[in-house]
Amino acid sequence: MRRRWTDLPLAVHDLIAERCGAVTAVTAPDAGEIAEFAAAVDTDADRVFVKAVRLDSPNLWMAHKEAQAAPAVQGIGARLRWQEQADGWLVTAFEYVPGRHADLSPDSSDLPLIAGTLATLADRLTPAPALRTLSLAQRWAGSALWPRIAAADGLTSWQAAHSDALVALEARASEAVAGDTLAHTDMTAPNILVDGARVRIIDWSWPAPAAAWVDTASLVPRLIAAGHTVDRAHRWAMTVPHFAVAEPAKVAALASVTAARWRLRAIQDGGPWLTLSVAADLWAADLLAVGTS
Question: Quick check: 293 pLDDT over 60?
């Protein structure tokens, strides 16, 4: 649950004031749900973006990962200002990154800017900087989400009709996404900020070495959910050189895992995950013939 400024211990308030200046305003973001506290903090000296998490939180590791990744992605990601503990909380301050959430809808002028940024990012982060983090291949090793969904009677009619192919693709996913590019692995519109012609990618809480095309591919079903046809979303992805040379069978394996993960979220949480799950199925269906050949 997201905490308010007034929920934080006074020691955290004092730490921020000591490091950044007297606090004059606190503005919570309109997206994001993982950090216990996150806000743009105005002080008499500057504006910073602050995140805070309790030291006993199961998500503490994500705060450490984001801070570790920050030097490698500086200039495209948010610059790390500092990270310290106070009264049982880990507090991280980043530069405040101006901009609005990316518009992923058809004909959005953001799309070519995002494609260019993804290409630049993959070039810059290959080989992957040395971070203490699992690769995406390691994270997905042994993934068996489709059998779990089937056992819970959660398959859609399309998923049930193609379950053997989806299971086979999921089994190949760990090998398919292996690579030596540091990937963001959580590409969403709120994590892509656009300010004029500049694009910044924030919230590097899930960094992982992976194939250079992974972050681009992960946006394809989000474009479909935003109103693109499958073909149009695919044509956008092909403008990123790393995706253009990806093996279709490997992309299909990633699509299978994405469809499974989003189906689970749709079952558990409903809401926007229902739309995203349908989009992931459309993408997987388009790739299925290639991926199982």
Answer: no
